[in-house]
Amino acid sequence: DAGITQSPRYKITETGRQVTLMCHQTWSHSYMFWYRQDLGHGLRLIYYSAAADITDKGEVPDGYVVSRSKTENFPLTLESATRSQTSVYFCASSARISGANVLTFGAGSRLTVL
Amino acid sequence: AQSVTQLGSHVSVSEGALVLLRCNYSSSVPPYLFWYVQYPNQGLQLLLKYTSAATLVKGINGFEAEFKKSETSFHLTKPSAHMSDAAEYFCAVSAGMNYGGSQGNLIFGKGTKLSVKP
Questions:
Q1: Which residues on A lie below 8 Å from B34 (Cβ)?
Q2: What is the dihedral sign for C-alpha A91, A94, A97, A99?
Q3: Which DSSP symbol is given to B18?
Q4: Hey, is A4 helix, strand or coil?
Q5: Residue B24, min C-alpha distance to chain A (Å)
Q6: How many CA atoms lie within 13 A of B90 on its CB side?
């Protein structure tokens, strides 16, 4: 299916464990983004990537690691999960549509850290 | 710096009534503005966007928004609410030169949850 696919959709883990959230897009868009959504905060940018092997920090990068060895994949890793990382995580890619770069989002990954 | 303020975290309307969701923005550069909708357990979907062309922007599902520079506002309206409009709505502004803003990164408001009563 065309679009952005995130996996897993739901994950429960324990404090201190490593967790990787996967993101795959079928459009070959250059730019990809990871956001977290928390009640009362809206969406905040964690990391973004301009192309394969080019990544950069966003607004709230602490505790997260990303990689992008292929254009279509942009995994997000929590190296040692903490309760404050309980959140819903959204991956997005951007494309030029009618004069503006527009974000298209995946369905999200809901992570609970116990 | 770019920021977005959505007035009212919850809005409730009756079916058939006018929907008005308020958004004010701050931007150090001419803004691109967006409204997204999020249904339960789903990602965000683009409703409409403003890119400095017409100030009145029409989107999907009968929604529209008007860009008012003097008021720094971009309120979302729909003349007649439908039960299927119940969702959370996010206003967003392009992030300028920060964090990939020129390539799509947005600064989001905190969201407004719309309830529609039968």
A1: 102
A2: positive
A3: P
A4: strand
A5: 15
A6: 24
